## 1
Amino acid sequence: MPTARADALLAGLRGRLVVSCQAPPGDPLRSPAHIAAIAASVCAGAPVAGVRIQGVEDIEAVRAVVDLPLIGLWKDGADGVYITPTAGHARAVARAGADVVAADATARPRPDGRPLAETIRAVHEAGKLFMADVATPEEGLQAAALGADLISTTLSGYTADSQGSPGPDLELVRALAPRVRVPVCAEGRLRTPQEARAALDAGAWAAVVGTAITAPAALATRFASALT
């Protein structure tokens, strides 16, 4: 991606909200048409900076109706490294229309045994930016050293090397933001507008929110639980 375009894309994300529009397996909303409708609704109804979309077909469907920056990924599997786990997955996400390709950048072994640097290189060769989904400060620093264009705290609490918490991992944001020269995005367990604001105050470049906005079942469960 040309430097001027990359700079403009990143500048457009700064201090703003990115909405993750996804649906888990078995959910009635799990179809490209539904995800595209959710993304279009979110983008039309709020001043969001971009969307994060899972799956090649969903990315293609959303790209057809949304002009904002699109962070794409491909979840393949359910254990270990499964977020865009190989360079081949990354190329497919890039071809589908993502502006930014997100991938697991943790220290865990990748399923094809290939290094993370190969995936980053494939994304750059496709003219896209690379977002490193990490769980620890060390992983974020390593990803930045390898050439990642953005870092996201997506996997904090989901690996053996990171501790989970009920809320967002703002300590990870604070640990990374001053130490890398690329944007650090807060993602994971951001449930309220106040927590999203706190993430920016902690040094996050942007706040990525999914379940709290685009998951009706989870929202209904929260309300029902409060009533009972």
Note: The first helix runs from residue 3 to 13.
## 2
Amino acid sequence: MSKTADTARPSIAWIGLGIMGSPMSENLIKAGYAVTGYTLEQEKLDRLTAAGGTAAASIAEAVREADIVITMVPASPQVEAIAYGPDGILAHAKRGALLIDMSSITPQTSIDLAKAAEEKGVRVLDAPVSGGEAGAVEAVLSIMVGGGQADFDEARPVFEALGKTIVLCGPHGSGQTVKAANQLIVAVNIQACAEAVVFLEKSGVDLGAALDVLGGGLAGSTVLARKKDNFLRRDFAPGFRIDLHHKDMGIVTDAARTVGAALPVGSAVAQLVASLRAQGDGGLDHSALLRGVERLSGGQV
């Protein structure tokens, strides 16, 4: 069970209790925040209450008295669905509340949300994260934030209960732009690691030993450290699903086209992610890019 909530801290409503949202909300409870949550799946609400949070029956009930509303849902359409309309956050959050969207969505969606919220007296930060399920559980996420300095300063203690690298990147939408760049780097990195794994195995090298020494040199990366066991064990239980990375690669390629930035390697990896999804692997972890390389190399997977 959690510590008793500190009434001096802002009350928090948390919307979206998935792979990332559940452990993140639980870390806030451990830090002494009163968290009221809402999501569509009853078992996830039960998990929240078991951790010391409060389950709400609707978005309206969750956000009505909250000082801070945090959302963590899959994509722009879900953010729009929970934010707008008569049953949404903006219709029921109190004036002066701070809405922190930690989903990974298009920068324009974040900009539009901030503008709509301002008309309701609600402040907004876009604050997507990197670090995956493990980073969420361990509270070591990287949090990239877009919005105003004063709102960022107010939110910092909350962010510090969730992550280790917390940076205000610029005005509304900037956090999402940086997250898009993050997802570009991660996808290309996983693809390079996957190609190296297949190359090493086909060459008859001890894969575990090879990945250990590669991890200690210039080829080492957080991606390789986090995904090494996935590659070795062919364990693709989702920490971050291919479906979601496919969505993110769409965001970054579209945003890059808008600003006139070429993504020659990123565009190729975006197609490989899309191919893997089309082959039925969308529900697997993004380290399953290894399966795509195996198929291209003549393997039966």
Note: The first strand starts at residue 12 and ends at 15.
